[in-house]
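User: Please predict structures.

Assistant: First:
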Amino acid sequence: MYEGERRPGRAGSCRSKALSCASATAGRLRLSPGSPALQGTCRAWGRLCSASTEKSTKAQSKGTVVLAYSGGLDTSCILVWLKEQGYDVVAYLANIGQKEDFEAARKKALALGAKKVYIEDISREFVEEFIWPAVQANALYEDRYLLGTALARPCIARKLVEIAQREGAQYVAHGATGKGNDQVRFELTCYALCPKIKVVAPWRLPEFYQRFPGRRELMDYAKKHGIPVPVTPQTPWSMDENLMHISYEAGILENPKNQAPPGLYTKTCDPANSPDTPDVLEIKFERGVPVKVTNTGDGATRSSALELFVYLNDIAGKHGVGRIDIVENRFVGMKSRGIYETPAGTILYHAHLDIEAFTMDREVRKIKQGLSLKFSELVYNGFWHSPECEFLRECIGRSQESVVGTVRLSVFKGQVYILGRESPGSLYNEELVSMNVQGDYEPADATGFININSLRLKEYHRLQSKVTVKQDE
């Protein structure tokens, strides 16, 4: 219902009955309008009216909805709007490594009418259950995007469904727009994990997006309903942050020729202003997963998944590593411009790629590269919980059994430089490949190898020559 709208209901009917009754009573008993008896009669009808109205309001409640809440303007307005529509709102805020005043967000949600607020720290499971499989896969969408947002969404949505089930809620809601990928990622996860769940997506409902066509209308609504609005000037773009990365899009960035302004980046420093001395790291892998990082300069080590990832974020960010500015293809069919900072993910991508090439059979790796391409596409499009994506994760995990070893690398001026690697399971044979030692290899055998492989080429070009001669005649 829009602001200012009024619907006839039990309360209006009750008021009419109270006035009629009061009038009739005054007439029968010949009471003056100000008499105590008449006032008492009116108060009694008033109490009946209030009780009836309260009962009616409860009867019209649509049930409980669990809202994926960020604490920002959009989801704060959505929280109040959902209450207007008759929902009891439970707010859920995921701590997935973003910089956020979670306690302030809790108080804000409660003040806006949420009946309960969940703040769930899912950072560790995000690393271990979502980022690590992507590292094993060398996941990269359209050759450049490391999937920071796409990996976070199913992790957040999984907990959203869990809370809905805990609360006995029939509905979940989110603030994703109707043009983006996140609506798909959230909802495919929800439907996969709880097929009977119902999703309220306000930005796809005409009664919502027609009422709030722009930020100004949201701001007006917020002021009218006492929703705190930002007091600092808004950046002319939108941001989304998690432990793995931060993304920037929309606003002035929608014009793809506009260069990102210098003040945009928050996770990484400008490579030109980064330290003049590199950090040299040794990253140890087991089954394709990083298990330990050592800084050879100061001896610092990290071995737990979350601490290791946070440390790599710090080191990479200090040296300006992990920035990209791309135009990508959204699943819904349009191209979009996105700017991303993925510090730790960039280091791990290069390190894992190196140790995998060092330890994996050539033909297995070719097949695995194809699987990785499909895996990246499925993750980007929101199919993390699909049977095909589960199958790919199993296959990729199996391929990583031999990916064991340590990579030594340098992080410097926006780049990651591989310095060396070692592994107890390497397929690299130094004697076999040496130019100084013949080893267990007979060079003369290469003649037959070349002859066999050239046969196909000779036949192809022989035919081409015949076709060319015939065309010339």
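Second:
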Amino acid sequence: MMNLKGNPELSPKNLMRPLKNYGITCMSMGFLVEETAPVVWRGLMVMSAIEKLLRQVDWGQLDYLVIDMPPGTGDVQLSVSQNIPVTGAVIVSTPQDIALLDARKGVEMFRKVHVPVLGLVQNMSVFQCPKCKHETHIFGADGVRDLAKTLGLDVLGDVPLNVNIRETCDAGQPIVISQPQSDMAKAYLRIATEIVKRLPTPPA
């Protein structure tokens, strides 16, 4: 999605140098294993990998550190929330009932480990036909909004189901870079703005 591949170089302090594109510094397990190799780790192996990605990387000066975690409430989520100070969590879900079950569990887990939940994002909220412009709520209309209301949380924004988002991601050219004036790009920017508004002001 970020048009990055290859193995990180090592700094003189033996720290991995993250890869960078579009002004964003990135680190991923995908840079450390073969492209087609599965990562089937549990327990201590997961915690060791997370520790390596967080503390053995030459991150430099960052504005924000965003950690993209898989769905669920397993080893990855617990390891991150218990081993580093997390300013806040954002839960992303489609509006369909089965996805909302996992989203709710995620909220409850972060609350249990005292990580503030900044809000929810409704992904694939609506599909607009590129030819006739008719809108269809394939995964349901307001599932995330209803869940947010039940949990007393804010909805940070909606991301539509759109072929341009998929194509630009696959091409390694995020839509906020390749089509910055599009409605899809503006949706992402609005979400980013809402997240930043809910974060504490960083020290000067």
